[in-house]
Amino acid sequence: MATYLHQARRAGLSRLDTKGSPYLYILPFFLLFGAFGLFPLLYTAYVSFNDWDLLDSGSHRWVGLANYREMLQDAYFWNALGNTLSIWVLSTVPQLLAALWIAHLLNHRLRARTALRMGVLLPNVTSIVAVTIVFTQLFGRDFGMVNWALGLVGIGPIDWQANTWSSHLAISFIVAWRWTGYNALIYLASMQAIPHHLYEAADLDGASQAQQFRRITVPMLRPTIIFTTVISTIGGLQIMAEPLLFASSQTPTGGSDRQFQTVALFMYEQGFREFRFGYASAVAWTLCLVIAIFAIINFLLTRRIAKDED
Amino acid sequence: MHPNRLLRLAAATLAAGVLLTACGTGTEGGSGGGNEKITLNVNLFGNFGYQDLYAEYQKSHPNITIQERTAAYNDHHRDLITHLATGSGAGDIEGVDTGFIAQMRERGNLFVDLGKDRQSEYLDWKWAASLTKDGKQVGYGTDVGGLAICYRRDLFEKAGMPFDRDQVSAAWGSGWDQYIEFGKRYAAKAPAGSAFFDGGGQLFNAIIGQAPVGYYNEDNAIVVGTSPDVRKAWDLTVKAIQSNLSAKLIGSSQEWNNGFAKDQFATIACPAWMMTKIKDQAKHAAGKWDVASVPGGGGNWGGSYLTVPKQGKHVEEAKKLAAWLTAPEQQAKVFTARGNLPSIPALYDKPDIAQYKDAFFNNAPVGQLFTTAAKQLKPQYQGPRAGDVQTTIRDALVRIEQGKQSSDESWKQMVSDVERLAK
């Protein structure tokens, strides 16, 4: 009787163990996510429905959707949104194409292959601040190296910060420089999972390198391409440090005429220069929504394009 | 590398470190022991010229270590306000510029009241500007700006212009129009790559600094759109820009610092504290700089305060240090070593200050020049967002310098941007 009970209890415990312990193992993630992810998200939503002065020791007043209404009529918000999309497209598209090509090259037998593979990740491990400062100097108006090089072929000098197009180009370049290698490594990893016999068969059939790349590599990478596109969209639409540090004025307005102020920077300006906590939160939530929409569109698009390749 | 940005980065790292250690040790500030080892964080912008003074103070107070962190002008004040808002992260002592003192004054409850003991030492208006409505003193004045024009003798000489300081002062003595005319003649024969002045934003600050009313009236209402003085300063600055006299550099930016090293401009509007910056940035040109009086005479730009935020851990010690750093003897030392003009009028007649000549500026009688200016100075009332208004106007002038907008377009946008600040 006693043994029976004992066995039953052990069985119960082991059932609890198999059923319950997995939840226990993943609990730390959800605790951290709840504290640092979910709670701020929901709290920001709550703040966005208030008129909230950060300086006035947190005094606030419920205003419903007023912050959102104001934002939709705010020309500076739309300006920032346009800049964000422009910088995002200018940085993400060339970045992913280049990453794909670099990964393709690295996938071949090369001298010092490991060193090269590590090398492409180097820009990503350097500090974003340091990178931006260096590039801001390269893109300097009076003594920048880019203008010097352009001068050799008779172009310029260009005041990179002054114009909308030139500032977007320069900022996109900084972003792309930092993230191309990272994406290349992700592509490379999944390229190596492509069965080699596919290429051998293609070789036998006389397919060229370019054909192999288009007909085998790209379709086989479809899930990875979707992944990188979505991740780059999320990152690209949140760009803030680069335009903030690119401005020699040291202010979050993104240039003299807000020509390179992104939405994230606009949010920062409203939150931490104007101390309009509620309004900044409304911008934050809108940005989150915009990102979600674009990520979904991209997901659908990249899925379709890769399918057409089949 | 950009020293300001690197410093900022360093400051952020430091701040994180300080927070961590603050959590770990949990020292009780103000428990009075006096021998317990403490670190006082002093957060500043620009150069207050305190390095030697720290060493002196630490020697006489062996239990105290002073840690100075310096950030760029706008970054520093934005960080301070954020730290005040969130209740942590501020230094034991925080420097505040004239442009932001009114904003801090409005949050007087977040600062330690420094009392009335030293009122009689200070210039009346300097003392009043950091006084809250209910009579609490939030900051000890450090320096006042005054106003002059610093210029490069050697470049003037190369362009065939008069370069003796009395002649130069006389040439534009009657006003800014003459300064611009002088500039046009300079530009005609100037060495390649050398503009007449550094940038529109800085020139505007100097001109508006001479007006009796600046961006605010005394009811804290912004008058930028309606004040004739603001429009006059704007028009003069635009005229100077459109005469191609500007090096188009933004004050305190990295490019501006480079501008000193590369001789990109021949004159700069020069409050006393600007001399400190010139000495830092233009080491290669020692002796080639000189100081002339400002067109039209008078005026003030800038000048700062040391405040003690209540959230600090060592409020008593911080108060003592702030009082010591701003005491007459120390203000005198900073003036002769670095150039920042004292805000304590009793010093103005002391021979070692009134007769002080600066070798870096070709032995210009800066003591006599700036103390005279300070005595005649008619203070301008500063409202809560004065610093941000100034930045907004600067950006508007940059738009003209960059050829993005006409004067009228830029003015209109600037006025609406400034009104937005007041919301």
UniProtKB/TrEMBL annotation, chain A:
<dbReference type="GO" id="GO:0055085">
    <property type="term" value="P:transmembrane transport"/>
</dbReference>
<keyword id="KW-0812">Transmembrane</keyword>
<dbReference type="Pfam" id="PF00528">
    <property type="entry name" value="BPD_transp_1"/>
</dbReference>
<keyword id="KW-0472">Membrane</keyword>
<protein>
    <submittedName>
        <fullName>Cellobiose ABC transporter membrane protein</fullName>
    </submittedName>
</protein>
<dbReference type="InterPro" id="IPR000515">
    <property type="entry name" value="MetI-like"/>
</dbReference>
<feature type="transmembrane region" description="Helical">
    <location>
        <begin position="277"/>
        <end position="301"/>
    </location>
</feature>
<comment type="similarity">
    <text>Belongs to the binding-protein-dependent transport system permease family.</text>
</comment>
<feature type="domain" description="ABC transmembrane type-1">
    <location>
        <begin position="81"/>
        <end position="298"/>
    </location>
</feature>
<dbReference type="InterPro" id="IPR051393">
    <property type="entry name" value="ABC_transporter_permease"/>
</dbReference>
<keyword id="KW-0813">Transport</keyword>
<dbReference type="InterPro" id="IPR035906">
    <property type="entry name" value="MetI-like_sf"/>
</dbReference>
<feature type="transmembrane region" description="Helical">
    <location>
        <begin position="85"/>
        <end position="106"/>
    </location>
</feature>
<feature type="transmembrane region" description="Helical">
    <location>
        <begin position="224"/>
        <end position="241"/>
    </location>
</feature>
<keyword id="KW-1003">Cell membrane</keyword>
<feature type="transmembrane region" description="Helical">
    <location>
        <begin position="23"/>
        <end position="46"/>
    </location>
</feature>
<keyword id="KW-1133">Transmembrane helix</keyword>
<feature type="transmembrane region" description="Helical">
    <location>
        <begin position="118"/>
        <end position="140"/>
    </location>
</feature>
<dbReference type="GO" id="GO:0005886">
    <property type="term" value="C:plasma membrane"/>
</dbReference>
<feature type="transmembrane region" description="Helical">
    <location>
        <begin position="169"/>
        <end position="189"/>
    </location>
</feature>
TrEMBL record, chain B:
<protein>
    <submittedName>
        <fullName>Carbohydrate ABC transporter substrate-binding protein</fullName>
    </submittedName>
</protein>
<dbReference type="InterPro" id="IPR050490">
    <property type="entry name" value="Bact_solute-bd_prot1"/>
</dbReference>
<feature type="region of interest" description="Disordered">
    <location>
        <begin position="403"/>
        <end position="423"/>
    </location>
</feature>
<dbReference type="InterPro" id="IPR006059">
    <property type="entry name" value="SBP"/>
</dbReference>
<feature type="signal peptide">
    <location>
        <begin position="1"/>
        <end position="24"/>
    </location>
</feature>
<dbReference type="Pfam" id="PF13416">
    <property type="entry name" value="SBP_bac_8"/>
</dbReference>
<keyword id="KW-0732">Signal</keyword>
